[in-house]
Design a protein that fits this description.
mainly alpha; membrane
Length: 116
């Protein structure tokens, strides 16, 4: 009987460790699925924002693109288009800021020349 108690304790500890490990794996797979959904929704939002900049948004086309199972290539192309669009918008904003700075410098130089 005294030898049985440590053996049961070891089995209990191993059982708890296996249960905790299984819970961690289940939780990680759940978070992975949630992350995939959030990434999909973020891509949809970015695509809609890109389409609203154009004439008429094609929201039904976006829904059908995301609902089909074998559209990985289409989603990859859409992600590439969105990234290029966002980079172009960012570059355009940078160029506008640069142009504004140049105009301010020109005005300052003209004011200095007028005072002399």
């Amino acid at each position: 009987m005294p030898f049985l108690l440590p053996f049961l304790f070891v089995r209990l500890v191993w059982g708890i460790m296996i249960a905790v490990f299984a819970c961690v794996i289940g939780w990680a797979s759940h978070l992975y699925g949630v992350n995939q959904n959030l990434e999909s929704y973020a891509l949809r939002y970015r695509a809609i924002r890109m389409e609203l900049g154009q004439s008429e948004p094609k929201i039904t086309e976006l829904d059908s693109l995301f609902s089909s199972e074998d559209s990985n290539d289409s989603i990859r192309r859409l992600r590439s288009r969105i990234t290029n669009y966002e980079l172009a918008i960012q570059r355009q904003a940078e160029l506008q800021l640069q142009q504004q700075r140049i105009n301010e410098e020109q005005e300052a130089i003209l004011q200095n020349l007028m005072m002399k």
